Amino acid sequence: MTQNKQTQYDDNNIFAKMLKGEIPYHKVYEDDKTLAFMDIMPQAKGHVLVIPKQKAIDLVDLEPEYAAAVLMTAKKVMQAQRQVFEREGIIQMQLNGSQAGQTVFHYHIHLIPSNIHELSVHAANQADSDELAKMAEQLAAAIDS
Ligand code: AMP
Protein backbone atom coordinates (compact mmCIF):
# COMPACT_ATOMS: atom_id res chain seq x y z
CA MET A 1 0.00 0.00 0.00
CA THR A 2 1.53 3.27 -1.12
CA GLN A 3 1.09 6.27 1.12
CA ASN A 4 1.84 9.90 0.28
CA LYS A 5 1.66 9.09 -3.43
CA GLN A 6 -0.46 11.33 -5.59
CA THR A 7 -2.26 8.69 -7.65
CA GLN A 8 -3.87 10.88 -10.30
CA TYR A 9 -1.66 12.89 -12.69
CA ASP A 10 -2.73 16.55 -12.55
CA ASP A 11 -2.77 18.04 -16.08
CA ASN A 12 -2.45 21.51 -14.53
CA ASN A 13 0.72 20.93 -12.54
CA ILE A 14 3.37 23.59 -13.19
CA PHE A 15 5.57 21.40 -15.40
CA ALA A 16 2.57 20.19 -17.43
CA LYS A 17 1.76 23.86 -18.04
CA MET A 18 5.32 24.45 -19.25
CA LEU A 19 5.03 21.54 -21.67
CA LYS A 20 1.77 23.02 -22.97
CA GLY A 21 3.48 26.41 -23.42
CA GLU A 22 1.19 28.04 -20.87
CA ILE A 23 3.88 29.46 -18.58
CA PRO A 24 7.39 30.79 -19.28
CA TYR A 25 10.64 29.09 -18.29
CA HIS A 26 14.37 29.36 -19.03
CA LYS A 27 15.00 26.58 -21.53
CA VAL A 28 18.33 24.76 -21.56
CA TYR A 29 17.51 21.89 -23.93
CA GLU A 30 14.56 20.21 -25.63
CA ASP A 31 14.01 17.18 -27.82
CA ASP A 32 10.99 15.06 -28.75
CA LYS A 33 10.87 13.26 -25.38
CA THR A 34 12.40 15.66 -22.84
CA LEU A 35 12.74 19.27 -21.71
CA ALA A 36 15.44 20.81 -19.49
CA PHE A 37 15.13 24.23 -17.83
CA MET A 38 16.54 26.30 -14.97
CA ASP A 39 15.08 25.65 -11.51
CA ILE A 40 13.47 28.92 -10.45
CA MET A 41 14.38 28.35 -6.76
CA PRO A 42 17.86 26.85 -7.15
CA GLN A 43 19.61 24.97 -4.36
CA ALA A 44 22.89 26.13 -5.91
CA LYS A 45 23.91 28.29 -8.87
CA GLY A 46 23.15 26.46 -12.13
CA HIS A 47 20.44 24.10 -10.80
CA VAL A 48 18.65 22.49 -13.78
CA LEU A 49 15.57 20.25 -13.99
CA VAL A 50 15.04 17.58 -16.67
CA ILE A 51 11.51 16.34 -17.33
CA PRO A 52 10.01 13.73 -19.68
CA LYS A 53 7.22 14.63 -22.09
CA GLN A 54 5.20 11.88 -20.47
CA LYS A 55 2.52 12.17 -17.81
CA ALA A 56 4.55 10.53 -15.06
CA ILE A 57 4.22 11.48 -11.40
CA ASP A 58 7.30 9.62 -10.21
CA LEU A 59 9.82 6.94 -11.13
CA VAL A 60 7.28 4.13 -10.99
CA ASP A 61 5.23 5.73 -13.78
CA LEU A 62 8.14 6.41 -16.11
CA GLU A 63 8.03 4.36 -19.34
CA PRO A 64 11.35 2.80 -20.40
CA GLU A 65 11.79 4.97 -23.50
CA TYR A 66 11.25 8.13 -21.43
CA ALA A 67 13.48 6.84 -18.64
CA ALA A 68 16.27 6.41 -21.20
CA ALA A 69 15.54 9.80 -22.76
CA VAL A 70 15.62 11.79 -19.49
CA LEU A 71 18.91 10.16 -18.53
CA MET A 72 20.45 10.94 -21.92
CA THR A 73 19.31 14.57 -21.57
CA ALA A 74 20.61 14.65 -17.99
CA LYS A 75 24.02 13.53 -19.29
CA LYS A 76 24.06 16.35 -21.85
CA VAL A 77 23.06 18.94 -19.25
CA MET A 78 25.58 17.66 -16.71
CA GLN A 79 28.43 17.84 -19.21
CA ALA A 80 27.38 21.40 -20.05
CA GLN A 81 27.25 22.31 -16.33
CA ARG A 82 30.78 20.94 -15.87
CA GLN A 83 31.99 23.09 -18.74
CA VAL A 84 30.12 26.30 -17.91
CA PHE A 85 30.63 26.26 -14.14
CA GLU A 86 34.12 24.71 -14.29
CA ARG A 87 33.42 22.13 -11.60
CA GLU A 88 33.32 18.34 -11.60
CA GLY A 89 30.81 17.80 -8.78
CA ILE A 90 27.17 17.71 -9.88
CA ILE A 91 24.40 16.27 -7.70
CA GLN A 92 21.73 14.20 -9.47
CA MET A 93 18.60 14.08 -7.27
CA GLN A 94 15.03 12.93 -7.76
CA LEU A 95 12.23 12.88 -5.18
CA ASN A 96 9.36 10.37 -5.18
CA GLY A 97 6.27 11.36 -3.17
CA SER A 98 5.49 14.22 -0.78
CA GLN A 99 6.95 12.16 2.05
CA ALA A 100 10.31 12.45 0.28
CA GLY A 101 9.77 16.19 -0.24
CA GLN A 102 8.45 16.12 -3.81
CA THR A 103 6.50 19.30 -4.50
CA VAL A 104 5.78 19.11 -8.23
CA PHE A 105 4.07 15.90 -9.26
CA HIS A 106 5.55 15.50 -12.72
CA TYR A 107 8.70 13.33 -12.69
CA HIS A 108 11.93 15.37 -12.82
CA ILE A 109 15.64 14.95 -12.30
CA HIS A 110 17.47 17.71 -10.42
CA LEU A 111 21.04 18.43 -11.59
CA ILE A 112 22.75 20.66 -9.06
CA PRO A 113 26.32 21.92 -9.32
CA SER A 114 27.07 21.62 -5.62
CA ASN A 115 28.27 19.44 -2.79
CA ILE A 116 25.67 17.49 -0.76
CA HIS A 117 26.78 19.32 2.41
CA GLU A 118 26.38 22.77 0.84
CA LEU A 119 22.89 22.66 -0.67
CA SER A 120 20.54 25.57 0.01
CA VAL A 121 17.02 24.88 1.28
CA HIS A 122 14.80 23.01 -1.20
CA ALA A 123 12.44 25.14 -3.34
CA ALA A 124 12.71 28.17 -1.07
CA ASN A 125 14.41 31.19 -2.63
CA GLN A 126 13.58 32.58 -6.05
CA ALA A 127 16.59 33.43 -8.23
CA ASP A 128 17.07 36.54 -10.35
CA SER A 129 15.36 35.97 -13.70
CA ASP A 130 18.09 37.70 -15.76
CA GLU A 131 20.77 35.51 -14.16
CA LEU A 132 18.74 32.37 -14.88
CA ALA A 133 18.26 33.48 -18.49
CA LYS A 134 22.01 34.02 -18.89
CA MET A 135 22.87 30.60 -17.43
CA ALA A 136 20.26 28.90 -19.62
CA GLU A 137 21.85 30.55 -22.65
CA GLN A 138 25.37 29.47 -21.61
CA LEU A 139 24.27 25.89 -20.96
CA ALA A 140 22.32 25.67 -24.22
CA ALA A 141 25.36 26.94 -26.12
CA ALA A 142 27.61 24.37 -24.40
CA ILE A 143 25.20 21.55 -25.35
CA ASP A 144 25.16 22.76 -28.96
CA SER A 145 28.94 23.00 -29.25
P1 AMP B 1 10.50 18.64 -6.16
O1 AMP B 1 10.27 19.18 -4.79
O2 AMP B 1 11.56 17.56 -6.24
O3 AMP B 1 9.19 18.23 -6.77
O4 AMP B 1 11.11 19.82 -7.00
C1 AMP B 1 10.35 20.77 -7.65
C2 AMP B 1 11.32 21.82 -8.11
O5 AMP B 1 10.65 22.65 -9.04
C3 AMP B 1 11.86 22.72 -7.00
O6 AMP B 1 13.27 22.65 -6.97
C4 AMP B 1 11.34 24.10 -7.37
O7 AMP B 1 12.26 25.10 -7.07
C5 AMP B 1 11.11 23.95 -8.86
N1 AMP B 1 10.10 24.83 -9.44
C6 AMP B 1 8.87 25.11 -8.95
N2 AMP B 1 8.22 25.95 -9.78
C7 AMP B 1 9.06 26.19 -10.82
C8 AMP B 1 8.97 26.99 -12.00
N3 AMP B 1 7.90 27.71 -12.28
N4 AMP B 1 10.05 27.01 -12.83
C9 AMP B 1 11.16 26.30 -12.55
N5 AMP B 1 11.29 25.53 -11.47
C10 AMP B 1 10.27 25.47 -10.60
TrEMBL record:
Instruction: List, alphabetically, the PROSITE patterns matched.
Output: HIT_2 (PS51084)
Locate the transmembrane regions by residue number: none
Q: Where is this motif: Histidine triad motif?
A: 106-110
Q: Where is the signal peptide?
A: none
Q: Which CDD domains match?
A: HINT_subgroup
Domain annotation HIT: ranges? 14-121
Which InterPro entries does UniProt cross-reference here?
Answer: HINT, Histidine_triad_HIT, HIT-like, HIT-like_sf
Gene3D superfamilies for the chain: HIT-like
- Annotated protein name in UniProt: HIT family protein
Q: Which organism is it from?
A: Psychrobacter coccoides
